[in-house]
């Protein structure tokens, strides 16, 4: 029996859902990040319980053909990327397998999963930087990403999955904090001035948000001066968050410099983005995903669409332009305001309607306004997936064709299971229904499962599921 801190040698049999290697030794199944199928490796047991263990790779004796040298010197220390050691073509195959495995294991759905659509830019693809600011063991400020499964910040000055402007912004904040005597946030004590830096790139215009614990942040003029020296176009917000929480933003945003919102064009639609408006982090893959979704809506024969979790309204506008009428439902007020502005920018006032609130509260009333039989439904929820009440409302409605976009294979499989009847709820617990294919017309059938690599070098994958009944 292997115990904690013991070293051992084994062979990687397969990869898990998070891209970690699976190694079996002395009756225990170990998960070992940064290893690949077929490799002979030397491991150190970090945790062992009930024949399940987690291990750290110490040496790779026989590297797999898929292994490459990581670009980032902080890889394996920083928790941002999990797959930089894997050839990009192999990353795509791994994510296809991850989606298929989730459907089978979680929902009992055995269906074809198409090859993952690649990102044309495997590096420097992110249009958003969200990075914590803290205090190191030596008491000095640190800006970086959290180590895997930790709140320990790994300090960095650059990140290869972000564009060059990220390095510039990080350097500016190190200088600013040192000059003005400001401290990063200490999770243990709840003390400090700055908790996070969030930056969005909107067509070359940067929206920089400083998340601080108080509003009287020293040296704002100096920060604006430093940013102005390095950036050609930017806005600066102060966000107040003094709560004991892992949520990045507090409720109050204060505009300190610049326009605050910027307009860009994507997929033929002019749209507006603010500091808290949701947009996909990979613009190139977003374009492919949205085009494919709208194409499905156009081919459905429907005359209207409902876009749930609609963000700033880009998808809603594309659907309105294609089908003639679309309704967006979004909980963030700023995003709804941007979506309303988008209507005027694209002359869609009579074709597009935006509602602010929770999807589970608003969707039933919107369904009453439309001919559900002729309505194409899109759900693009956050990582936690679609609310159970929303899924019940969809099943009760007359909607016959829909698209589900998900950034989490596990919640995607769960929600697809409920919509297809592969999962049934008994006493509040979801259970697999092996005879779900015999279900009547009340449930949906999966027509297509298409992964998109929205997040190269990481374990994450975006998935489009098309359903009909």
UniProtKB/TrEMBL annotation:
Keyword Methyltransferase belongs to the record: yes
GO molecular function: rRNA (uridine-C5-)-methyltransferase activity
Domain TRAM: 1-59
Binding positions for S-adenosyl-L-methionine per the UniProt entry: 280, 309, 330, 380
Enzyme Commission number(s) of this protein: 2.1.1.190
Family in the record: Belongs to the class I-like SAM-binding methyltransferase superfamily. RNA M5U methyltransferase family.
PANTHER family in alphabetical order: RNA M5U METHYLTRANSFERASE (PTHR11061), TRNA (URACIL(54)-C(5))-METHYLTRANSFERASE (PTHR11061:SF30)
Protein's recorded name: 23S rRNA (Uracil(1939)-C(5))-methyltransferase RlmD
Species name: Candidatus Borkfalkia ceftriaxoniphila
Name of encoding gene: rlmD
